[in-house]
Amino acid sequence: MAGGMTTQQDITGFEGELVYPGDVDYDQRRAIWNAMHDRRPALIARCRAPRDVAAAIAHGRREGMPIAVRGGGHSMPGHSTCDEGVVIDLRPMNAVRVDPVARRARVQGGALLGELDRATQAHGLVVPAGVVSHTGVAGLTLGGGVGRLMRRFGLTIDSLLAAEVVTADGQVLTASEDENPDLFWGLRGGGGNFGVVAEFEFALHELRDLLILATFHPIDRAPEVLERGRQEMASAAPDELLWTSFLRKAPPLPWISPQLVGRPGVTSLIEWSGEAGRGRRLLEAIQAEFRPIAGSLETVPFLEIQTMTDEIFAAGKRTYIKAGFARELSDPLIAALCGQGAEVGSPFSQIEVLAMGGAIRRVAPAATAFPHRDAAWLINIPATWEDAGADDEEIAWARRSFAAVGPHLTGGKYVNFMGDDERSDAGGAYGATLRRLQEVKRAYDPENVFRLNQNIDPQM
Ligand SMILES: Cc1cc2nc3c(=O)[nH]c(=O)nc-3n(C[C@H](O)[C@H](O)[C@H](O)COP(=O)(O)OP(=O)(O)OC[C@H]3O[C@@H](n4cnc5c(N)ncnc54)[C@H](O)[C@@H]3O)c2cc1C
């Protein structure tokens, strides 16, 4: 049957909730984080268990419909929805079970970072993941997972021990170093290409709070700020130190006075996750020399910093993203970043300059499917705005900015920070791991049932 012909009906073996066009909650259930993707699926299958996932996959395949898989719904290119297809919605599967003695957590495929953080922090433990609490664990993990603890504890995939995966033919497989190790390898960086992850198992690390130096400098001082970041993050930098700078208009945050909000500049978060005394000495020295026009140096509970920008990045805005990796923060790269940072339009748009290295680099390049371990910096340019009338202008700024910084980047792309016009850039996303990823794809999804993602074409 052609796509879009599904009428209200039960699906054999499905015990979750089915939402069809016309149902009262259809519009609420079909919306994803990025309002640019206003799609109308034929059916939203809200799953409660792996058997529901298998039944929904079988139904979509039988009906010849596209199948989108949705965890937290934060895909910026809109991969987790589709027109006239099935959305397999994992959100009802959001349980997080922590074993504090074994230091492990089992996390269902629809959990959000906030749900994971709250459950693990109840025991003073943590999974290193992203920085906005309404982001989905699943999509973030499958692409790699960068965040404020990555230099200390590695990418999110570096703490992944196992996953339970529902494959295109409805099997429920365990993927780990011991079982289906090729699938386990591919899941760690290969996006949602191989199946639907019903549950992740993570190793946990000890952490309750961070010492954070937060600063704001006007845009004319941005070169000085980025040069200082380069200096602090040079090769001998401790893993406990993380530098992130955001070229943007000053956001409404507690440590920025209301008169400054909206002023173009550079906001930095210089975060320390190690022994407090050493961190305080280091961050106080930076603060003293740095003379920000707004700033604070405080010990911040992990849950507080993880939710600090939730509101600024609330769902329903429009986003277009470009990003890449750099081996160094060279003078020409700094000049390009600052030049484009001065042209930021929307109060939500920013150029993010994120230090990598540390624990990320100590994992062997071939150990997981994430191929960018040697990068020193991740440069992320998410344009974010509210009014559809500004689409052209904001997209043009992000493209211009990326064109300016692009010559100083590696050419590699982070799967989770790619735009919808980069779907054909599998080489950029997967780099040296692409060939092996294609073998794994042929083994687990030879018909490319899971193609609404940064796709690995099994036929290539
Ligand atoms: C506000 C915001 C903040 C962000 N912050 C960070 C950050 O700090 N660090 C970072 O690394 N990234 C960050 N990202 C990017 C984020 O990692 C990606 O958008 C990611 O895809 C989101 O995962 P999700 O489950 O919410 O997305 P979805 O839109 O639900 O899914 C994204 C992709 O993953 C697939 N997928 C989802 N669930 C499953 C599953 N259970 N099994 C198999 N495939 C699945 C989907 O099919 C789709 O291809 C952020 C994004 C936003 C919008």
Summarize the structure.
The chain is an alpha+beta fold and about 450 residues long.
CATH topology of the largest domain: Vanillyl-alcohol Oxidase, Chain A, domain 3
Contiguous uncertain segments of 5+ residues: 1-6
Estimated share of beta-strand residues: 15-25%
Q: How many E-type strands?
A: 18
* Morphology: globular
Query: What small molecules accompany the polymer chains?
Result: flavin-adenine dinucleotide
What is the CATH class name of the largest domain?
Answer: Alpha Beta
Tell me the structural class. alpha+beta
Major sheet description: 7 strands, antiparallel
The strand order across the widest sheet is 15-12-14-13-17-18-16
In percent, how helical is the residue content?
25-40%
What is the mean pLDDT?
96
What is the end-to-end distance?
Answer: 28 Å
Q: What does the radius of gyration come to?
A: 22 Å
- Any guess at the CATH architecture of the largest domain? 3-Layer(aba) Sandwich
Helix segment count? 13
Question: How many domains?
Answer: 3
